[in-house]
Design brief:
Layout (H helix, E strand, L loop, with lengths): L15 H17 L11 H7 L2 H11 L4 H8 L3 H15 L7 H10 L10
Helix pairs in contact: 3-5, 3-6, 4-5
């Protein structure tokens, strides 16, 4: 049974003059703020350095085509641990377009540990 109390009232509307004044204040404040300096994106090498040694090892083996189970057996850890490490690798390297093993392998050949000297 619907009553008038069941319906929530609309919020009060601001008078047009007040709304225009508020918009002017916001514009003036924004114009006075100094620009925020942009930080350069970290390089692949800088991001790679942020990974733990175990994450780097999992990433290297994954880029070589090993499965989580194979990596786990080789390193003496559980496959879910490998999955977790790889999730962190993708999270950290996402800014450089690394979202899967193929992209990881490509990036590592271009800029990472698999890069061949003189490959420029």
């Amino acid at each position: 049974m619907g009553t008038e109390r069941d319906q929530s009232p609309e919020p009060p509307k601001l008078p047009d003059d007040f709304q225009r004044l508020w918009e002017q204040i916001v514009e003036m404040a924004a114009a006075r703020l100094p620009p925020v300096p942009r930080q350069p994106e970290p390089s692949f090498a800088q991001l790679w350095a942020r990974l733990s040694p175990r994450m780097k090892e999992c990433a290297r083996l994954a880029a070589l085509g090993e499965t989580n189970r194979e990596i786990a057996q080789r390193l003496g850890i559980k496959p879910n641990t490998v999955k977790s490490h790889m999730g962190w690798v993708y999270l950290v390297l996402d800014i450089h377009g690394v979202h899967n093993r193929r992209e990881l392998a490509e990036r590592m050949r271009e800029e990472g540990p698999f890069r061949r000297e003189g490959a420029d």
